[in-house]
Amino acid sequence: MGITVNLVTYLVGTMHLPSSTSSKIVSNFAGTTLLLCLLGGIIADSFLGKYWTIVVFYLIDALGVGALAISTGLPQLRLAPCNTSLPNKCEQANAFQMGVFYTALYATALGIGGIKSSVSGFGSEQFDDKDEKEKSQKTYFFNRIYSFINIGTLLAVTVLVFQKCLGSLIIHILKNVVAAVRKRNLKLPPSADLLFEDTPVGSRIRRTAQYRCLDKAAILVEEDHNTNESSSTTSPWRLFSDKNRGNKNVTIATLSISAFLLLPQFIIVGNGEGFMYSGQLNFFITQSPKGMKAMSTGLFQTTISFGYLASSLLITLVKRVTGGGDGHGWLTDHINNWRLDMFYALLAILSLINFGAYLLCASWYKPSTSEVDIALNEVVVVTGATGSDQNKE
Predict the structure, then answer these.
(1) Which of 275, 39, 287, 299 is CA-nearest to residue 150?
(2) How far is C-alpha 220 from the geometric centre of its chain's CA atoms?
(3) Crossing angle of helices 263-286/95-124, nearest 10°?
(4) Can you say how many angstroms the Cα of residue 342 is from the centroid of all Cα atoms in its chain?
(5) What is the pTM of this model?
(6) Which whole number is the average pLDDT over 108-135?
(7) DSSP string for residues in 146-198
(8) Which domains does the chain possess?
(9) Other beta carbons less than 10 A from residue 136's beta carbon
(10) Going by fewer Cβ within 10 Å, which terminus of the chain is more open, N or C?
(11) Residue 241's pLDDT is what?
(12) Are the beta carbons of 335 and 12 closer than 8 angstroms?
């Protein structure tokens, strides 16, 4: 997860690939990783066993991550920074650079795939089904392993997120507020083009009508220049342009909504995934024959991989069908031109179809008594009969 959550940032910011292309690469990587779980399961059940499969694929994983670190660190494989002052001056990674990156990335995918197919099955085998206490603990094991997976995910998206330090956001806000308070008695110019702006044209977004009092921080007056130094530098505590990074060339207004509007939906989806993942993992391991537990876990992970690969295909199709020559569409490189509402509506329809398919498969499934339960019942019957005969005698 530490690799996955940083891939888009790295591919866009360092390799200079389009955001949609970077998203497809991430989806393909995640999908391939889970698809390789099936290979790892077959190797574990048929050749090496779970323990040695974990050992071997951990070594492959370590080699892949090491190669990935080298591919991202060598100066020969890194690109020069973009010239943000000029349009379309970002040189994309060439075939050799991407080839080295892909080799390291998919070696990592191979290692992870082999590990994931065996770890849960190997852990579940440490519990004795003939012991009622351990049998009940086995159920909680799947909840615990899923909890640890999510703890790792949480650390990945909070601690390991790769981003250059741009200074504290709180300090930026304070600078804006202080500069605006100092100029509270000044009048705003009739046009936003007359406000101070020190960011490149390509990285600006359109100013909004909200909190226009903070725009006063960008009013340029003679006193703003620091005359105590030899150079004509400007103190950001007196003159600040970061409220909205303004651009008269942008024709579409910035949407005044927050990304946190997606939070309730993500909470619902996350809770659903939590119930589904631990339940499915338990189902595939407990309901499969003894010699197919790792492979059945691989099959379970493979179904998730199909989702990632389908996601990559879906992005390609949506861009091709809805994208126009004017840079607009459901998914474009500039978020202000996106129609995410339509894209999410499409995902909702696909989710309903998926739910219908699940109900159909669930109606076909017929639960069966496990061989362990049958053996225990036979022991109870035989023991009871023997005791009754002894009492009669």
Answers:
(1) 275
(2) 42
(3) 60
(4) 21
(5) 0.58
(6) 87
(7) HHHHHHHHHHHHHTS--------HHHHHHHHHHHHHHTTTSPPPSSGGGS---
(8) 4-165+268-378 (1.20.1250.20)
(9) 10
(10) C
(11) 61
(12) no
